Each structure stands twice: as C-alpha cells, then as structure tokens.
Amino acid sequence: MKKNIILFLCLLIAITNSYAQPKYEQKIRKLMAAQEEAWNKGDLESFMLGYMQSDSLVFIGKSGVTYGWQNTLNNYRKGYPDTATMGKLKFRLIEIKKLSGKYCHIIGHWHLTRSKGDLQGHFTLLFRKIKGRWLIVKDHSS
To answer: What is the pTM assigned to this prediction?
Structure first.
C-alpha cells in the first residue's frame, strides 16, 4: 500500500512538472502583463520598458519600419496621444517558442477596447535575453 502511494505521488509530481511553464515563458508572460498594465494606465514610458532600449530595436507596423527605441516611443506618442485613443489593451499569446538560450519567438493577438471603436491585430515578437532579462528586440504588429 505504501509503495502505491509513493508511486502515485511521484507520478503526480511528474505530470504537474510537465505542465509547468518554463522560466523563460513565465518571465515573458510577466513582462507582457506589465506592458498591458502600463498601457492601460496611459504610461507609454513604462510600456516601453519591455523593449530593448537601443537604436537596434526594430518595430514594423502599418507605417513601415522604425529603428530605435526612442523613435518607436515617439511613434506611439503620435499615434496614441491620449488615454481615450489608447483604450484598454489585451494581449493573447498564441505561441511561445524558445529558439535558443538567448532568443524566443512569440506569436500573439492584441486588442484595444476603445469608446471610438476597437482595434485589433496580430504580432510577432523576437525576444532576446540581455543581462538576464528577456526584452523585445523586434516587433512586427499589424
């Protein structure tokens, strides 16, 4: 009887661990939740903390390709000048795939709920682990 209980507990632990999110995924999900929260407060500077703060950042959107963290922030400020325009953001992550120890690829959906009409689309993100932090280095949002 005691052997059966121990075997059952070992099996339960193995099953539970197989469904646990890997650390990299937990960190990316936490970062993106913080971005949602910052956006929904109208805080673009905090939203941008999820991006690599570098001229090497690449953002691809409806207006084309933007290079650099500051240019990306400036475009967000121009496109979303107030909280009414920003609305409330919700991300839905469709796929999180670790490419290597330093890179992770994300496919997801974004939705803005706004009084003047909702917006939505999809995104692909390339995250890079930099000094222990996962940061967005390329963003293609449509």
So the answer is: 0.84
